[in-house]
């Protein structure tokens, strides 16, 4: 039996946003590897072995997948959203490089959180934008600040992943200060929590009104560009937005 | 009968990447509005009226959808990829604002081209990144250059939509020059054409080797950050990439 690894994006939460190719990969798998709440989204069936693991052990998880595939298993590593956006695909390739391995790998895209959030809000990412992981587990805050300032000065809309955790709440407060400095108080900011799940909540405020506690680790934050505006309950970036 | 408008993302091409909620919206529609090749992807059935239109008439298309919904029709505006990324969602909200209308609108996300391309290449968008529309139909080239330089100086990976058309081939040549200036000759660049269709082609080169004719309007271009590397046939951004 020839083993393989598929890294599959489960989308933001709703089953109606899981692509058919991801569903087919799950049907063919012998083993599911991933963070506990994502593995819990896969339906159990006879012969399917679940390998749930805690957060922040991405490399261990990738190595487990390599070992399983080397022994002939058909492994799906599940990610929330899209596996290539601040998720398991990069960790897998780090493990592949370190191991000098060459397994059969497929990456299957999914609906990433910022696009699900943007769809609920209107079209805030309809013009040029950046995606920034605000977690400082893997990079210094100085680099986050450097990127925020370049993104703001380039008048990009911005989407933030992992904006705030209990262990480092002060980082996001500083992010909001930097944004107010660079973009002014009237810029629109969207807090989109747990989109497409029963806990979904959407809030649109200005930077002046924004507070750190409006975000948690289930929230994606989107900041508009200079032309981003409201129409009714919607927020959108005009197609011709932006000025040097 | 109460009309509505749904703006739906059909993904990059393969049916296996169309989400179930988009399929359900197409099943409920009375009218399909969109660019000719995207409308052609929707299966015909009795009572379903197709309204294909040419490129660059996004506002006319949005107004048609508003008129149809006002008369009680159930309209799906189809976009390739995700409707919120350089596609029809922003145009619809522009038309809504101009008309002072308040129709029943839903935006359904789809697999956007850069994420489908990234999945085929490995994980080049696994760290912070920007998405930039290189079409200068709706913005001056000076703004494109301004954003490219900020993106490069922030050490963002970059994904480019609409890199090159027959009517303005010189723009993309200039983009490559700017990137070589900012990022040096060894930076990796990915040309991903028509991902998930029978015409799919993927090419990975350095900026020194990149040529404008490697891209056309069916190509998404992804530029790595300073840490982006190859492992076997794959290209990925390590999770801890980047330095100020």
Secondary structure: elements and pairs:
The structure is a homodimer of 244-residue chains.
Chain A: E1 4-9, H1 20-28, E2 31-35, H2 36-39, E3 49-53, H3 58-70, E4 74-79, H4 88-99, E5 105-108, H5 113-121, E6 122-123, E7 129-133, H6 141-153, E8 157-161, H7 169-183, E9 188-193, E10 201-206, E11 219-223, E12 229-231, E13 234-236
Parallel strand pairs in A: 1-4, 1-5, 2-3, 2-4, 6-13, 7-8
Antiparallel strand pairs in A: 8-11, 9-10, 9-11, 12-13
Helix pairs in contact in A: 3-4, 6-7
EC number (chains A, B): 2.1.1.131
GO biological process, one term (chains A, B): methylation
Domain Tetrapyrrole methylase (chains A, B): 5-210
Structure characterization notes:
The structure is a homodimer of 244-residue chains. Chain A is an alpha/beta fold. Chain A folds into two domains: 4-111, Tetrapyrrole methylase, N-terminal domain (Cobalt-precorrin-4 Transmethylase, domain 1), CATH 3.40.1010.10; 114-236, Methyltransferase, Cobalt-precorrin-4 Transmethylase, Domain 2 (2-Layer Sandwich), CATH 3.30.950.10. Chain A has seven helices and 13 strands. In chain A, the strands form three sheets. Chain A has a five-stranded parallel sheet with strand order 3-2-4-1-5, sandwiched between helices. In chain A, strands 7-8-11-9-10 form a five-stranded mixed sheet, sandwiched between helices. In chain A, α3 packs across α4 (88-99) and α6 (141-153) runs parallel beside α7. The model of chain A has no long low-confidence stretch (mean pLDDT 95). At the A-B interface, α1, α4, β5, α5 and β6 of A face α1, α4, β5, α5 and β6 of B.
């Amino acid at each position: 039996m020839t083993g393989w690894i598929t890294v599959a994006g489960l989308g933001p939460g709703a089953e109606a946003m899981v692509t058919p190719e991801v569903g087919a990969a799950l049907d063919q798998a012998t083993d599911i590897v991933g963070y506990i709440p994502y593995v819990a989204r896969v339906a159990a069936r006879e012969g399917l072995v679940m390998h749930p693991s805690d957060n922040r052990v991405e490399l261990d998880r990738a190595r487990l997948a390599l070992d399983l595939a080397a022994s002939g298993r058909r492994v799906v590593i599940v990610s929330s959203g899209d596996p290539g956006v601040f998720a398991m695909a990069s960790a897998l390739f780090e493990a592949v490089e370190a191991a000098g391995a060459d397994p059969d790998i497929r990456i299957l895209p999914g609906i990433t959180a910022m696009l699900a959030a943007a769809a609920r809000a209107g079209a805030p990412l309809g013009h040029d934008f950046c995606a920034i992981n605000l977690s400082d587990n893997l990079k210094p805050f100085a680099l986050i600040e450097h990127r925020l300032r370049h993104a703001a000065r380039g008048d990009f809309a911005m989407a933030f992943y992992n904006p705030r955790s209990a262990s480092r709440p002060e980082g996001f407060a500083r992010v909001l200060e930097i944004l107010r400095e660079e973009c002014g108080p009237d810029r629109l900011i969207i807090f989109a929590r747990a989109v497409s799940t029963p806990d979904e909540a959407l809030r649109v405020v200005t930077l002046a009104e924004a507070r750190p506690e409006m975000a948690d680790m289930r929230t994606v934050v989107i900041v508009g560009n200079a032309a981003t505006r409201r129409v009714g309950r919607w927020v959108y970036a005009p197609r011709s937005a932006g000025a040097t």
